[in-house]
Write a structure and sequence with these properties.
Elements lengths: L1 H23 L10 H8 L2 H23 L2 H8 L2 H13 L5 H21 L11 H24 L2 H29 L12 H20 L4 H23 L10 H20 L2 H7 L2 H4 L4
Helix pairs in contact: 1-3, 1-4, 1-5, 3-8, 4-10, 6-11, 7-8, 8-9, 8-10, 10-11
Length: 292
C-alpha cells in the first residue's frame, strides 16, 4: 500500500508539472519573475488543473508517509519526472528517444534493486524528541542560509547550482514535516491544529516553493533540475535515517549492490534532467528566464 500510494503521488506530481508547463509556455516571457506571472497563470484552466494535481500529490505523499519511511517514499517520488516525460510525450505525440528510454530504465531498475537489496524499513513511527528536531532544523537552516546567501551573490552556473542545493534541501525537509503532520492526524482532524505540524508544513511549503522558483529563475534548468531531483531523495533519506531512526541493510554483498543501484538511478536522472529538450519541457522558458 505504501509503494502504491507513493507511485500514485508521483503520478499526480508528474501530471501537475506537465499541465503547469503546458500552461506556462503560453504566458509572454516579459512576465517571468514578476507577480503578474502567477496572476495570468491563475486564469488558465490548464494551470489550475496542474495545481490541483500537485495538491492531490501532496495528499497522497502524506498518506504514504503516514506509515511509510522516508527512505522508501522519497526515492519512489523521483519517478514523477518519468511520468511527466511520458505524459508530455503523449500530449505532444512525440516519441521518446533511445537515450531517454535508456535513462528511464536505469532509474526504474536502479530503484527496484535499491528497494529490493537494501530492504529498508517499510514503516516508520515518525517520532523524534525536541533535541533531535532542533539539531535537524539547525542543520537544514544553516545549509539554506549558506547556499542562498552565496547563490544570490554569484552568477551564471554557480548561482543556479547553489540555489538548486537550497531548493533540493528545503524540499526534502518539507517531506520530513509532511510525515510529522500525517502522524499528527492520528489524534483527529481538529486536534491536529493544536499541534505545531500544520503550521510548520505551511511555512516549509512556502519556503520550498520560493527556493525552487528562485532556482529556476536563475536560468540554468539543466543545472538546477538535476541537482534538485537527485538531492531531494538523498537528503530526505539521510534525515529519515538519523531523525526517525529508519534503517537500511548493508551487510555482505548488499553494500556494493546498493551503491551500484543508486549510481544507476542517479545516472539515469542526470541523463534525463541534463537533456536540453527535457529541461525545456519540465521547466518552461518563461519560468527559467532571468528576472527582468
Amino acid at each position: 500500500m505504501i509503494v502504491t500510494l507513493a507511485l500514485l503521488s508521483a503520478l499526480a506530481f508528474g501530471g501537475g508539472v506537465a499541465f503547469e508547463a503546458r500552461a506556462a509556455v503560453e504566458v509572454p516571457v516579459e512576465h517571468a519573475g514578476r507577480p503578474s506571472l502567477l496572476v495570468r497563470l491563475a486564469h488558465r484552466p490548464l494551470w489550475l488543473i496542474g495545481l490541483l494535481a500537485n495538491i492531490a500529490g501532496f495528499g497522497l505523499q502524506a498518506a504514504a508517509l503516514h506509515r511509510g519511511s522516508l527512505v522508501v517514499v522519497q526515492p519512489l517520488l523521483t519517478t514523477s519526472l518519468l511520468f511527466t516525460l511520458l505524459i508530455i510525450a503523449v500530449w505532444t505525440r512525440s516519441a521518446l528517444t533511445r537515450s531517454q528510454w535508456s535513462a528511464i530504465l536505469l532509474v526504474v531498475f536502479g530503484l527496484a534493486i535499491f528497494l529490493g537489496v537494501s530492504s529498508p524499513d517499510g514503516s516508520s513511527a515518525a517520532t523524534a524528541d525536541a533535541k533531535s528536531w532542533l539539531l535537524c532544523t539547525v542543520a537544514v537552516v544553516t545549509i539554506l542560509i549558506a547556499t542562498v546567501t552565496a547563490g544570490l551573490r554569484a552568477s551564471g552556473t554557480s548561482r543556479a547550482a547553489l540555489l538548486a542545493i537550497a531548493a533540493g534541501t528545503s524540499d526534502a525537509y518539507m517531506a520530513t514535516l509532511a510525515k510529522a503532520f500525517s502522524r499528527s492526524l492520528d489524534h483527529g482532524i481538529w486536534a491536529v491544529f493544536r499541534t505545531w505540524t500544520p503550521y510548520a508544513v505551511v511555512a516549509g511549503g512556502v519556503t520550498a516553493l520560493v527556493f525552487i522558483s528562485t532556482a529556476y529563475q536563475a536560468g540554468r534548468p539543466t543545472v538546477t533540475l538535476p541537482i534538485i531531483t537527485v538531492l531531494d531523495p538523498i537528503v530526505a533519506a539521510m534525515i529519515g535515517l538519523t531523525l526517525y531512526n529508519e534503517h537500511l541493510r548493508f551487510g555482505g554483498m548488499r553494500g556494493p549492490a546498493i551503491v551500484l543501484a543508486v549510481a544507476g538511478m542517479v545516472t539515469g536522472l542526470l541523463i534525463l534532467t541534463r537533456d536540453d529538450a527535457v529541461a525545456a519541457e519540465v521547466v518552461p522558458d518563461v519560468l527559467a528566464a532571468e528576472p527582468t
